[in-house]
């Protein structure tokens, strides 16, 4: 076998380069953008989403034409489609046990639907329908009891069995854009109003507790699922503010990086990070204790 003893020329030049190129490609794939797939099927813009409390692979989405779709994330396909409302689906939430979910729409109704598809020959219709007096803009379910809250003109707290609210909470006269129950201290709820307020309520006292006024409007808030007093608010001034409920004078942390209004925010189940979506067409993941996204 002819051998070349020149150290610059390696006998396995081609295989070695090939292995390196392959590893580089694999690593590029590993460090690529985290986009997995898109779920196609809505004919109109998607206005709201809800997670299934028990099943990680189930996600619900509501569109501007009143259509609700239930998706299976492992198969990346739509399991079921419901024509839920006339006009926009304004808000939706799943019941804590995962057997049913609630939607509110521009037709002033609150509807409760079964999570399973109807049997063969059954009609696709809601379990309950509540006709309200005003348009509801958001809904959230209590984490342990058969109680849910809607917001719009005011925050209404409903028992699932009754067609009129148990109590109505107001502080000011502006419309309220979103309402969220605290997952740990389950009787607490927070809401964002269009007069730049974040108001906290206690369900047991049936009165508002505290109010914080920011410079610009807050679009929505999300409670930390691990720390009972902490919540993060998505604001129009391009920032997110993490507050401790006990000390509302100043935020614990201001999260900056977005270059337009922040529209939505949600926590990871560990409570260590949250994800935010903005009008600047970007989604960012923030650690709770850092001012910038990772």
From TrEMBL:
Keyword Repeat among record annotations: yes
WD repeat boundaries on the chain: 39-81, 255-294
GO cellular component terms, semicolon-separated: small-subunit processome
Pfam families per UniProt: WD40
Keywords: Repeat, WD repeat
SMART domains found in the cross-reference section: WD40
GO biological process: maturation of SSU-rRNA from tricistronic rRNA transcript (SSU-rRNA, 5.8S rRNA, LSU-rRNA)
Keyword Repeat recorded: yes
PANTHER family cross-referenced by the UniProt entry: DDB1- AND CUL4-ASSOCIATED FACTOR 13 (PTHR22851:SF0), U3 SMALL NUCLEOLAR RNA U3 SNORNA ASSOCIATED PROTEIN (PTHR22851)
Protein name: DCA13 factor
Upper taxonomic lineage: Eukaryota, Metazoa, Chordata, Craniata, Vertebrata
């Amino acid at each position: 076998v002819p051998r070349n003893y020149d150290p610059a020329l390696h006998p396995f030049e081609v295989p070695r380069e090939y292995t390196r190129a392959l590893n580089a490609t694999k690593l590029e794939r590993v460090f690529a953008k985290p986009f997995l797939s898109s779920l196609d099927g809505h004919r109109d813009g998607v206005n709201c989403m809800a997670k299934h409390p028990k099943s990680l692979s189930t996600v619900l989405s509501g569109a501007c034409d009143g259509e609700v779709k239930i998706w299976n994330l492992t198969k990346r396909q739509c399991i079921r489609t419901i024509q839920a409302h006339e006009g926009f689906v304004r808000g939706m939430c799943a019941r804590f046990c995962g057997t049913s979910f609630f939607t509110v729409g521009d037709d002033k109704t609150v509807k409760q639907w079964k999570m399973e598809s109807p049997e063969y020959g059954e009609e696709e219709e809601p379990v309950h329908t509540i006709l309200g007096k005003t348009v509801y803009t958001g809904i959230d379910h209590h984490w342990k009891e058969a109680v849910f809250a809607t917001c719009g003109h005011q925050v209404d707290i409903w028992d699932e069995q009754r067609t009129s609210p148990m109590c109505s909470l107001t502080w000011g006269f502006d419309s309220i854009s979103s309402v969220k129950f605290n997952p740990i201290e389950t009787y607490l709820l927070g809401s964002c109003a269009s007069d730049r307020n974040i108001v906290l309520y206690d369900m047991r006292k049936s009165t508002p507790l505290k109010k914080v006024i920011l410079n610009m409007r807050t679009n929505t808030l999300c409670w930390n699922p691990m720390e009972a007093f902490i919540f993060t608010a998505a604001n129009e001034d391009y920032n997110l503010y993490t507050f401790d409920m006990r000390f509302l004078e100043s935020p614990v942390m201001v999260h900056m990086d977005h270059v337009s209004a922040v529209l939505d925010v949600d926590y990871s189940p560990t409570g260590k990070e949250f994800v935010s979506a903005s009008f600047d067409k970007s989604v960012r993941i923030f650690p709770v204790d850092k001012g910038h996204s990772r």
